[in-house]
TrEMBL record, chains A, B:
<dbReference type="InterPro" id="IPR036739">
    <property type="entry name" value="SLC41_membr_dom_sf"/>
</dbReference>
<dbReference type="InterPro" id="IPR006667">
    <property type="entry name" value="SLC41_membr_dom"/>
</dbReference>
<keyword id="KW-1003">Cell membrane</keyword>
<dbReference type="Pfam" id="PF01769">
    <property type="entry name" value="MgtE"/>
</dbReference>
<protein>
    <recommendedName>
        <fullName>Magnesium transporter MgtE</fullName>
    </recommendedName>
</protein>
<keyword id="KW-0813">Transport</keyword>
<dbReference type="GO" id="GO:0005886">
    <property type="term" value="C:plasma membrane"/>
</dbReference>
<dbReference type="GO" id="GO:0015095">
    <property type="term" value="F:magnesium ion transmembrane transporter activity"/>
</dbReference>
<feature type="transmembrane region" description="Helical">
    <location>
        <begin position="439"/>
        <end position="462"/>
    </location>
</feature>
<feature type="transmembrane region" description="Helical">
    <location>
        <begin position="402"/>
        <end position="427"/>
    </location>
</feature>
<dbReference type="InterPro" id="IPR046342">
    <property type="entry name" value="CBS_dom_sf"/>
</dbReference>
<keyword id="KW-0460">Magnesium</keyword>
<keyword id="KW-0479">Metal-binding</keyword>
<keyword id="KW-0812">Transmembrane</keyword>
<dbReference type="InterPro" id="IPR006668">
    <property type="entry name" value="Mg_transptr_MgtE_intracell_dom"/>
</dbReference>
<keyword id="KW-0472">Membrane</keyword>
<keyword id="KW-0129">CBS domain</keyword>
């Protein structure tokens, strides 16, 4: 638990307010290299699990593994749940199955699943053999759902009450139930006789009503009822849109079987945002992983695709070798047309990917948005055509070269705007992620069009 | 409130589950063009405010303004609060101040502030004149804080209880207080005699304790106590890291003055992610705005900067005009070296910007991450040097050209890795946003280095 005095001291600059300081990391690294288990445990003792996870993430892969061997108790259940997915996957397979089974036993079922799902099959079997029967049952049914679905993310601890109960019945039930309830909850789900969720009541409202009030009179229809096979991104979107704090998850028969809470959805939102951003830049899933080799593996595939498209663009240039040999100014200026197109295309693309992710770009306004992107590209093309035409005209003392590059600029930036919106929309239409691969397609269009139009016009007019 | 039966019907494909359908948007557009106010009001009547806001965002700017004139009652307080910032700013200045004052009167103070802050000064004064004295006081003190700070975002409705109260006292107080409490709350803040927050108790825990239990015995220290001038991005980071649901905000004397809740933080997280993504692609703030002109304005500045750097890169090419005139293959191949460097640099940059935003890249591991990016760039450079060397060798039947492009590729991709990490770190060191302007700097490096090394080596060796 952080010291509130620290957080309040305005004279402390932002970085020193952090629990995980550069000094602490240095001490942890020293404890690891000195194999001082007691010191390592001591350094982590007072840290919030989230801070402990942050500290571990600052270490190199080798240091993380050494720490796991030296001081396994540092890796408690809550801290493991706080680690980033790739770090956790690296570390847990190095821990003792008995330790792991003990570490996760007090976690809510969603966090328990988070830890166990990253284990190798053999390790997973050994950990499952060590946990209690009821935990094993919960884990196995969670793991039966696909990754990145509501079923994987939900916790099986929730508070449900039948419609005919009063506020007083419900409060008494919660006081009695104790351990079986989740650590924290924000809504009581009201269920009918078939255990289907028919309403929800925020705890803060429940608390303000008299004991005699019937639940049926104060409940509201749940904002959303989630199926367990629903993709986590869609669920997070519902939470965000309707400002939901928790939501019921039902099984195939519509019976209440779990609960999703907003703090887990915040993690999903961040994960999806990170994926979109890295995908746009052409980095595969394991983008933020630690080692040189994993970084190379995460990036090489898209560099390979880019090499292919760059060679294609070069093929276009090669068509005009004769023109370039006669007028080298064409070679000097051609990257400007391609680069401006690439930039304009990337701008359109980022706006489009963002609008698709936030559901702002739909069939109802697609035509208008496509027109806007085309027109914005063409208008910017006109602005920079004038500017670049003037520069080229002065530089190479050629009025003809000036208007060739100007015309190429207008055409390429208008195409860039179109490609920036049509490529992600096309990918989405074919069921692909609009963020993945879009960049490469768009820059291929802008390179090929840019080189072809500029060199083609140049060859026609100038030679 | 959505119909739960709809949400459960698995035979309904995803898009039709939406409340805001293409059909509905079409009907709204028809109602606007027919000036049918009753129909417009009717179409919006049963929509959740978030869905109503989504529907309005699907309309063009002109349609939005026409709808505001035709059917102002569509723009209720909750719906206005749900609109995206730029859409809301466009619309509210077209509404009648009296209508606005009435629409916002039932909102929590944070949502009220959200609506009023976007008004023109004159409109704002007129709305403030119409609201109740207590609302005006709250609004004026919220508006006194900077935009994008905790003070602007916080709501002034919260539940506080002194340390010496029992659970029973607290519940009785909440039942009595009624209207003055926030619509929803998740924690009771425990305050000392100076009204400083010293603890917090989740409502779900309070509810499960007996009436005689003293608050002092069940409270925990607040995970964070927020100053009102704190930047919203930092606050959202705390919420995300510590899985917080609400947090107390204090005034200069440390007295409890407001509350932040996680649903508002979800909006902040999305806003900051959107800004980072658009900034990386070179789109200014108003990136998703509706009209062609606003799109042009949001993008032209970075296109201008890109034009400058593209001309710079062309200047490098111009240094080797003689070489190109003798060996046009240099002009054909040079964009490949630059393009591969640009891609590798963008990959490093996206990973770095993401790691800085999530606080994973710190002074403790910066040296290791810089090394990793350099090495990953160099290794990928080696891989694609071999591949591209082979392609160039076969294409132009020249072993010398093959190893010139291979060597240039290694050097440019290693520089790309370094630039991708050093540029955002450098911007951060100088207090700038690492996402803004990074792309342009990185691609300038990779263009200039790529052209210079490839053409320079080519000129030296081949001629």
């Amino acid at each position: 638990m952080s010291d509130s005095a620290d957080l309040l001291d305005e004279t402390v600059p932002h970085d020193e307010e952090e629990q995980v300081t550069h000094k602490l990391i240095g001490e942890i690294v020293d404890a690891i290299s000195d194999s001082d288990a007691a010191l390592a445990h001591g350094l982590f003792e007072d840290l919030h699990p989230a801070d402990a996870a942050d500290a571990v993430e600052q270490l190199s892969y080798d240091q993380q593994i050494a720490l796991a061997e030296l001081a396994p108790r540092v890796f408690g259940g809550e801290m493991l749940a706080e680690l980033q997915d790739d770090t956790r996957a690296d570390i847990i397979n190095e821990l003792d199955p008995g330790h792991l089974a003990e570490a996760i036993q007090d976690l809510d079922s969603d966090d328990m699943t988070l830890v166990v799902e990253d284990l190798d099959p053999e390790m997973r079997a050994r950990v499952l053999a060590e946990v209690s029967d009821s935990d094993r049952e919960r884990l196995e049914s969670s793991l039966a759902f696909e990754e990145d679905t509501a079923g994987r993310l939900m916790q099986r601890e929730f508070v449900a009450a039948p419609t005919f109960w009063s506020v007083g019945n419900t409060i008494d039930h919660m006081r009695r139930a104790g351990e079986d309830l989740p650590d924290l909850f924000f809504e009581v789900f009201v269920v009918d006789e078939a255990f289907k969720p028919v309403g929800s009541i925020p705890v803060s409202r429940l608390m303000r009503c008299g004991r005699d009030v019937r639940l049926a009179d104060i409940m509201v229809a749940p904002q959303a009822i989630i199926r367990p096979d629903r993709d986590q991104e869609e669920v997070a979107y519902l939470f965000e849109k309707y400002h939901m704090i928790s939501a019921p998850v039902v099984d195939d028969d519509g019976r209440l079987s779990g609960m999703l809470t907003v703090d887990d959805m915040v993690d999903v939102i961040q994960e999806e945002n990170k994926e979109d951003m890295l995908a746009l830049a052409g980095v595969n899933e394991a983008g933020s992983s630690d080692t040189v080799w994993s970084s190379v593996r995460a990036r090489a595939p898209w560099l390979l695709v880019n090499l292919g498209t760059a060679v294609l663009a070069s093929g276009v240039i090669a068509m005009f070798e004769g023109a370039i040999a006669q007028l080298v100014a064409l070679a000097v200026l051609m990257p400007i047309v391609a680069s401006m197109g690439g930039n304009a295309g990337t701008q359109s693309l980022a706006v489009a990917v963002r609008a698709i992710a936030s559901r702002d770009l739909t069939v109802s306004n697609a035509a208008r948005v496509i027109w806007r992107e085309f027109a914005a590209g063409a208008v910017n093309g006109l602005i920079f055509a004038i500017l670049m035409g003037a520069i080229a005209g002065v530089w190479f003392q050629s009025f003809t070269l000036a208007w060739v590059i100007a015309l190429a600029m207008i055409i390429n930036l208008a195409c860039a705007g179109l490609a920036g919106i049509l490529v992600p929309l096309g990918l989405k239409r074919f069921g692909a992620d609009p963020a993945v691969a879009s960049s490469v397609f768009v820059t291929t269009v802008t390179d090929v069009v840019g080189f072809f139009v500029f060199l083609g016009l140049g060859a026609m007019v100038l030679l």
